[in-house]
């Protein structure tokens, strides 16, 4: 399986962050595709095209999600920059989100 997926978890409640808009961008900031997290906080495939080797950004619209959920927060967006080094593999980039901190890691 190849491609790119993400999962956003509200680290305060432990619940999925449903309805977060996510943009996939190339290194120059050009938007390549978008998606919105589902009821489980996931986007199973944000791209419908092969990712070539290179630098990409996943930009999470956390400001609107926090606002929609009446949460006062510090981060209006989260930009996770990552590198695809092997286009034949699947990349999973999760986001653990809270109003005043976030964390990410390379998932499987």
UniProtKB/TrEMBL annotation:
Q: Does the keyword Hydrolase apply?
A: yes
| Entry EC no(s) | 3.5.2.17
Tell me, what's a Pfam family for it? Transthyretin
Q: Which PROSITE patterns match?
A: TRANSTHYRETIN_1 (PS00768)
Give the catalytic activity. 5-hydroxyisourate + H2O = 5-hydroxy-2-oxo-4-ureido-2,5-dihydro-1H-imidazole-5-carboxylate + H(+)
| InterPro entries cross-referenced by the UniProt entry | Hydroxyisourate_hydrolase, Thyroxine_BS, Transthyretin/HIU_hydrolase, Transthyretin/HIU_hydrolase_d, Transthyretin/HIU_hydrolase_sf
Q: Which residues form a coiled coil?
A: none
The family classification in the record reads: Belongs to the transthyretin family. 5-hydroxyisourate hydrolase subfamily.
Q: What does this protein do?
A: Catalyzes the hydrolysis of 5-hydroxyisourate (HIU) to 2-oxo-4-hydroxy-4-carboxy-5-ureidoimidazoline (OHCU).
* Descriptive protein name: 5-hydroxyisourate hydrolase
Q: Which gene encodes it?
A: uraH
């Amino acid at each position: 399986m190849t491609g790119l997926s993400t999962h956003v978890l509200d680290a305060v409640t432990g619940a999925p962050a449903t309805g977060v808009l996510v943009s996939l961008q190339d290194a120059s900031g050009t938007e390549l595709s978008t998606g919105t997290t589902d009821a489980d906080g996931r986007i199973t495939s944000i791209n419908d095209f092969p990712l070539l080797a290179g630098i990409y950004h996943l930009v999470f619209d956390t400001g609107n999600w926090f606002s929609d959920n009446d949460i006062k927060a510090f981060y209006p967006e989260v930009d996770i920059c990552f590198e695809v080094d092997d286009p034949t593999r699947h990349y999973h980039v999760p986001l653990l989100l809270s109003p005043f901190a976030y964390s990410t890691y390379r998932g499987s």
